[in-house]
Amino acid sequence: MGACTTCGGKAGFLATECGSCQMKRFEDQSKEAAAQKEVRENARQNRITEEHQRILADVKAGFKCYLHKTEYINVDSELTGGSFNFGAYDDANVRLSGLEGWRVVGLVPRTFGTLLQNTSGMNSVWAGGTGGNISGAYVLMELELTPGNVEKLTSEIEEYLQETVR
What we know:
This protein is an alpha+beta fold and 166 residues long. It has three helices and five strands; from the N terminus they run ββαβαββα. Helix 1 packs across helix 3. The longest helix has 42 residues, at 19-60.
């Protein structure tokens, strides 16, 4: 049985540290990691506050600023002979966002591909494939911040920064 390198007590077979010293070391490491995480979060929150103040000042001074977001919508596409459930077409979030001042600035299609097989009895062989079938789309949207709306949108800006700033 070896001796603990920390306290000199019994460490156990092929061990360099006893259980209590090992536990204390893990607790100290955990406390240090939590303290570092808190410091990083405090720095992040300070950066968010500074960015929010900068945005308000820039917009009021006439500088153009935009918030951006992405909404995903399913597209009810169909592939003959296959049963794929992409979901029903639903653009309700995009339409509601438009009523809040967001506008569509881009679209990124989500595509789907599959292998095709020929089957005869118990045999199945590869027959080719199909790809590029659109199964949905990412709708890229933006909201322009203006001197007239920046104060009204302060909570949306704060939420945006909380989600965006790392």
